[in-house]
Every structure is written in structure tokens, then in C-alpha cells.
Amino acid sequence: MKSIYDFIVKPLGEKYNNKINIKNKELYLNTKIEGWKFVNRLAIVVETPLAFDIGIKKGDTVVIHQNVFRTFYNSKGVKKKSRSFFKEDLYFCALDQIYLYKNNSTWKPVGDRCFVMPIVNNDQFSNKKEKDLIGVLKYDNSSLNSLEITSGDLVGYTPNSEWEFLIEGQRLYCMKSNDIVIKYEYQGNEKEYNPSWARSG
């Protein structure tokens, strides 16, 4: 069972990460299934495509687009699975819907994707907890490496280019290589910002 151009994946856990336990009772964090924020974006690769090989193997964990597992209601109010649904608990996932994968315990970005962690806002006159458009590059790629930009560098990125992901207890922003526009020098007072809810998630 192999797809020609798509990966076949299954959810790592449930299709939605929208429940927490408080005093042995389940609390749902969302009221509509159409919302993307609580859709599970971690999957296990069941099969790889026949058409190409980019290093992702069967059994690898992948970070994917929220629409792969997303459920919705159509115009008639009927509950429907996403267009990616294959059968049972299996879904098709195109290459451009995969942003990060892990094999041999190492996370690797796919294509021109990269991941940045924001830093603490040290401006005492601002109530924002994180500094706008600046962060620490956590997962780089070959395009950035060719510009001598690597993981651990302090970088600036363009407005509205970041997409929030929760990966192993860290809230990271996913973006493309060309969204990274500045490489800063560290001043010594920078500190990564990771909200407490991410660490406990």
C-alpha cells in the first residue's frame, strides 16, 4: 500500500489536542471543531511515496499542516472528515504539508522551512512578554546555512510570516527561509521566551 506522490500518515495520539484533566475531570478547550488551534499536528509516517525520497522514513514523526486531521461541517451541517482522509485512521499528506520530521531522535526541517523561538521582551515600558519579530533560530536548513545562518543565531523575521507550533514542550514559530531577513549580534541580555502552558502541554 503506497501512494505515488503523498505520504500516508496517522495521528500521534488523538486527532485533536483539546482536552486537559483538572481534578480527574476532562475540560474541553475549544467549542468548535472547525478551529485550527487545537488540531493535532503530529503524525507518524505509515508509508512513504513512490515518486521521491527526501529522507523521511516509515515510523518517523512528522509535524504537519493543521488541515490534514481537521474535521468540519459542510453547508448542510453534516460533519465531514478532511479531504486528506484515506481510511480508518490513515490520511494522505502532501510533501508541502510536512514542515519538520524526526528520525534518529533529531528534528530536521523539510525544504525551505525553519523554526524560531521568540525572546523575552526587555522593554520595561511595554506589557508584551515577547519581543516582536526577533528570535533564536532553533531548526535551520541548507538555504540558511549557505548564508552562514545556523541554529542558535539571533535572527529577525518579517511580520505575519510566523505560524505557531508546539514541539516537545516548546512553542516555536515556523516560517520560510526568505522570511529571515536579519542576523543580529547577541548583546548578552537575550533570553528565550517559552510560555508556561507550552512547557506543561
Plain-language structure description:
- The chain folds into two domains: 7-108, no CATH class; 111-199, 10 Kd Chaperonin, Protein Cpn10, Chain O (Roll), CATH 2.30.33.
- Helix content is 4%, strand content 41%.
- The protein contains two helices and 17 strands.
- The chain has helices at residues 142-145, 196-199, and strands at 7-11, 19-22, 25-28, 42-47, 61-64, 72-73, 79-80, 85-87, 90-93, 98-103, 106-109, 113-120, 130-139, 154-157, 163-167, 170-176, 180-184.
- The strands form four sheets. A seven-stranded antiparallel sheet has the order 8-9-1-4-5-10-11, with no helix packed on it.
- It is globular.
- The mean pLDDT is 89.
Q: Which features characterize this protein?
A:
mainly beta, 2 domains, 2 helices
Main beta sheet: strand number and arrangement? Answer: 7 strands, antiparallel
> Helical region count?
2
Order of helices and strands: EEEEEEEEEEEEEHEEEEH
Share of residues in strands: 35-45%
Side-by-side strand order of the widest sheet: 8-9-1-4-5-10-11
Specify the helix fraction band. under 10%
Compute the CA-based radius of gyration: 19 Å
Return the domain count: 2
Q: Cα distance, first to last residue? A: 34 Å
Shape: globular
Global mean pLDDT: 89
User: Segments where pLDDT lies below 50 for 5+ residues?
Assistant: none
Question: What's the number of extended β-strand segments?
Answer: 17
Task: Return the structural class.
Answer: mainly beta
